[in-house]
TrEMBL record:
Organism superkingdom: Eukaryota
Keyword Protein biosynthesis: no
Pfam (any one): LRR_8
Signal peptide coordinates: none
Species per Swiss-Prot/TrEMBL record: Darwinula stevensoni
Record-given protein name: Uncharacterized protein
Key words of the record: Leucine-rich repeat, Repeat
InterPro entries attached to this UniProt entry: Leu-rich_rpt (IPR001611), Leu-rich_rpt_typical-subtyp (IPR003591), LRR_dom_sf (IPR032675)
Stretches assigned to coiled coil: none
Length: 260
C-alpha cells in the first residue's frame, strides 16, 4: 500500500483469510494496526515494512508468534517507546527516524544481524540490551542523544560476527571503562562528530588491543576535539594502536613529527 491518505488503521481481521509473504506500507496516514492484521500471516510473513507514515503504535508483543518474520522495518514514523523485544527469527530490525526515547531491557533476539535505532531521541541504552544478540553484524545508534557520557555496560557485545558499530553525532564527551566491549579485530567503530577530547586508557586501551591484533578494524574519530593522552604516546604499542585510529594526530615521545 503506497500513497494512501485515507486508511488510518488496520482493523481486526481486515485481511480476512488472506495471508502474505510480505507487507509493505509507504507514505500513508496509518497510525496503528490491530495485532490480527499481521497474525493472520504468522506462519508465512517474512518481511513487514511500515515507513513514511504516522505510525504511533505497533503490536510488538506478536513477534514471538511470527516464526518466519526476518525483517521488521518501521522507520520515519512516530513510535515513542519500544518494549523488551523477543523474536526467534528476526534478522533485521530497522527503527530509525522515529520519536523513540525509551528502550526496555531484556531483549531476546538470538539471530538478529542488523539493528538500526538511529535518528531517535534515545538518551540511554538499557544494560544488557545487546548481550544475547550473538549473530549481530551491524549496530546503528547514530544521531541519538547518548552523550555526554556513555556508561559502563551500555554496549556489551557478544557476537563473533560484529562488523560495524555506528555511534556518530551523539554529543558523547566520555566513554566510561567498559562502555563498549566485545569488539572483534575487524570491527569498525564509528564515533565521528562527537565531543570526545580524551582517549582515556581505561576506555580505549582494551578496544585498541583487540583491534590491533588484526588489520581491518578501526575507530573513526574525525570531528572530535581529540587530544592524545599521555598513556598512548608513551605506550610501547603506540604505532600499532595509532594505525587503528582514524582522525587522530599524535606525536610519539620518541618522534618529533606527528605519527599521523
Amino acid at each position: 500500500m503506497r500513497n494512501n491518505w485515507v486508511v488510518k488503521d488496520l482493523r481486526e481481521r481486515i485481511f480476512g483469510n488472506m495471508t502474505f509473504d510480505e507487507i509493505h506500507i509507504w507514505n500513508t496516514n496509518l497510525v496503528a494496526l490491530d495485532p490480527s492484521a499481521v497474525l493472520s500471516s504468522k506462519d508465512r510473513l517474512e518481511s513487514l515494512t511500515i515507513s513514511h507514515s504516522l505510525l504511533e503504535e505497533f503490536p510488538f508483543r506478536v513477534l514471538p508468534r511470527m516464526t518466519r518474520l526476518r525483517t521488521l522495518h518501521l522507520s520515519h514514523g512516530f513510535l515513542k517507546s519500544v518494549p523488551a523485544l523477543e523474536s526467534p527469527s528476526l534478522k533485521n530490525l530497522l527503527l530509525w527516524n522515529n520519536e523513540i526515547h525509551a528502550l526496555e531491557p531484556r531483549w531476546s533476539m538470538p539471530v538478529l544481524e542488523r539493528l538500526d535505532i538511529s535518528h531517535n531521541p534515545i538518551s540511554d541504552l538499557p544494560p544488557g540490551m545487546v548481550e544475547g544478540m550473538r549473530n549481530l553484524m551491524s549496530f546503528d545508534a547514530s544521531h541519538c542523544n547518548l552523550g555526554p557520557v556513555l556508561r559502563n555496560g551500555s554496549l556489551a557485545f557478544q557476537s563473533k560476527s560484529l562488523a560495524k558499530i555506528f555511534l556518530q553525532e551523539n554529543d558523547i564527551v566520555k566513554l566510561e571503562p567498559g562502555a563498549i566491549t566485545g569488539l572483534r579485530n575487524d570491527t569498525r567503530l564509528d564515533l565521528r562528530g562527537n565531543k570526545i577530547r580524551n582517549l582515556t586508557e581505561g576506555s580505549f586501551r582494551p578496544m585498541l588491543e583487540h583491534l590491533s591484533s588484526g588489520t581491518s578494524g578501526f575507530i573513526f574519530l574525525w570531528g572530535n576535539p581529540v587530544i592524545c593522552d599521555e598513556w598512548l604516546v608513551r605506550s610501547p604499542d603506540f604505532k600499532k594502536f595509532l594505525q587503528r585510529l582514524e582522525g587522530v594526530e599524535c606525536v610519539s615521545k620518541s618522534s618529533k613529527s606527528p605519527a599521523k
